[in-house]
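Exercise 4. Each item below gives a protein and its sequence. For each, produce the structure-token representation.

Item: Energy-coupling factor ABC transporter ATP-binding protein (Eiseniibacteriota bacterium).
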Amino acid sequence: MTTTPARPPELPARASEPVVRVSCVRHVYPDRTQVHLCGLDFVVERGQRVVMLGPNGCGKTTLLFHILGLLEPQEGEVAVFGVNPARHWNRIRERVGVLLQNVDEQIIAPTVWDDVSFSPRNYGYADAEVERMTREALERVGVAHLRDKVCHYLSGGERRKVALAGALALEPELLVLDEPFEGLDPASRADLVDLLNHLHREHGVTMVMATHDVNVVKAMADVVYVLVGGGEIVAHGSPEQIFRDPDLLRSSNIEPPVLAELFAHLETMGVALGRPLSLDDAARAIVAWGDRNARRVAPTATAASPRPKTESGELRFDFADDAADGDDEKPARPRPPRAPRAVPGDRS
Ligand SMILES: Nc1ncnc2c1ncn2[C@@H]1O[C@H](COP(=O)(O)OP(=O)(O)OP(=O)(O)O)[C@@H](O)[C@H]1O
Ligand SMILES: [Mg+2]
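Answer:
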């Protein structure tokens, strides 16, 4: 009979120390491919959600492998919870949950239950604890129904969820996630965003993530790091700061989120509504803009009829008026005369 083990002895990391620091790391693979993760230091503070963006092959996975101690830098420094992970992984591994980009590399047991319970069993937790930890991890990720399934037969998305359940089983303080949304359907993707944000909010879990899915970044990131080819770390900032810089995005081969593109495009049309990145913020910006227009067009409008309507009953918005309003908005552009609307069947 096994017993519940104590966590590893207290580590030297002080509360004020970053959870992760990667400073100018150089790694040369055996075939001489060189990745030089230099430029800015990559720093993750306790409780932060940090997302890494960059083109294919720029070195995101290489950077994560250094954080996980799977690679040792030939130059530069890596510290996780205050220790060198390549040398002292045993001292921190129970505090770190991992989802690799290639999940097949981490699913090792024949069945889902065996796989997700592997770490708790391996750390010598009591049977009842192993049962609880495994069940809760499977439930959190929404794959409890797969517990007896043979891993080999899982679909791609199921495989990723099972691997994530394995990463969560030990209730880690730091989650390292490489392309966690790859292959997930929209509902599963939204569920995963909710789950990760819940872990962050309720349990203070720190997260480092590489993704190409720019549309989740606003919902998922406190800080964004941008890498370019070769591994240079060229920028970091809030999602708003990063997505406001089209030159930066172009140089890093990053497609801006749909909302960022839409609102940038509206700006070029003379409708400056800011750069909201979430649906909620976008809806609020549009409603506020509509209300401003309503007040301007019909100053006597009441709460019962807050916005003026056209003859056909549609709400009326005046683009040119709005664009002239506000400090950072572009000057109004004259509107071309509108061509009369064709009536179906009318060929005159
Ligand atoms: N084991 C390896 N041997 C040789 N070269 C490698 C190895 N692993 C990665 N590389 C190379 O290192 C560079 C960085 O790869 P990495 O996987 O870190 O990129 P990435 O930013 O994660 O890309 P992606 O967005 O496609 O996941 C690439 O040029 C890749 O070909
Ligand atoms: Mg990668």
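Check: The two ends are 91 Å apart (CA to CA).
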